[in-house]
Amino acid sequence: MRYFISCETTYAFREGPDFSIKFDMISMPPRHRKLLTLAFLVRNGVVPHEERHVLLGLKKRGFGIGKWNGFGGKVERTDTSIASAAVREIQEEANVQVSVEDLESRGVLLFTFEQSNEVMEVHVYVTEKFSGQPSESNEMKPQWYDVSRIPFNTMWADDRFWLPHVLSGKSVQGNFRFAADEDSLLD
């Protein structure tokens, strides 16, 4: 079962044997929200007819250590917008520059973890415009991947459900609940 949100109502959908989508309303208990960003840098292949590439970073410390992910983090009080927080995080984690105007919003994902009363509200962005060469920081080790060869087995379990849509130009909204081990999706 996968979860998606629409406005104020959360729905679960199951793909049935006939590939139809069935919706069930879900109630979510009130929780503290933590505002975060997640950004993906993409580029066309270096040679003609080569796949597009996405820049992922291997998390070296803290939450999500050992997983490949996009670049992002907490929105700080000093950030002038959610998008400006994404720009700051890209600079800090990948050592490249991006303009707020060049970020394309691709949706919002909500994450909850078993035994936590916090909701992580993650704003997802994509950009093809950036300057500088990505380089390792104290938080992330960046590496380019063909979009057809994304290492989902070493990423967050939910990524395989929504990241291909984001990289193909679509917007997403989702709600994912993780077990206390931070690896297993519940429901």
From TrEMBL:
Enzyme category, top tier = hydrolase
- Keywords from the UniProt entry: Hydrolase, Magnesium, Metal-binding
Substrates-to-products reaction catalysed: 2-oxo-dATP + H2O = 2-oxo-dAMP + diphosphate + H(+); 8-oxo-dATP + H2O = 8-oxo-dAMP + diphosphate + H(+); O(6)-methyl-dGTP + H2O = O(6)-methyl-dGMP + diphosphate + H(+); N(6)-methyl-dATP + H2O = N(6)-methyl-dAMP + diphosphate + H(+)
Taken from the record, one Pfam family name reads NUDIX
What positions does the domain Nudix hydrolase occupy? 32-171
InterPro entries to which the protein is assigned, alphabetical: 8ODP, NUDIX_hydrolase-like_dom_sf, NUDIX_hydrolase_dom
Q: Show the GO MF annotations.
A: 8-oxo-7,8-dihydroguanosine triphosphate pyrophosphatase activity; dATP diphosphatase activity; metal ion binding
Which metal ions or organic cofactors does this protein require, according to UniProt?
Mg(2+)
**Superkingdom of the source?**
Eukaryota
Q: Which GO terms describe its biological process?
A: DNA protection
SUPFAM superfamilies per the record? Nudix
Q: What is its EC number?
A: 3.6.1.56
Annotated CDD domains? NUDIX_MTH1_Nudt1
GO CC terms on record? cytoplasm
Question: Which family is this sequence assigned to?
Answer: Belongs to the Nudix hydrolase family.
Q: How does it assemble?
A: Monomer.
**Entry function:** Oxidized purine nucleoside triphosphate hydrolase which is a prominent sanitizer of the oxidized nucleotide pool. Catalyzes the hydrolysis of 2-oxo-dATP (2-hydroxy-dATP) into 2-oxo-dAMP. Also has a significant hydrolase activity toward 2-oxo-ATP, 8-oxo-dGTP and 8-oxo-dATP. Through the hydrolysis of oxidized purine nucleoside triphosphates, prevents their incorporation into DNA and the subsequent transversions A:T to C:G and G:C to T:A. Also catalyzes the hydrolysis of methylated purine nucleoside triphosphate preventing their integration into DNA.
Q: What is this protein called?
A: Oxidized purine nucleoside triphosphate hydrolase
Q: What is the lineage of its organism?
A: Eukaryota, Sar, Stramenopiles, Oomycota, Peronosporomycetes
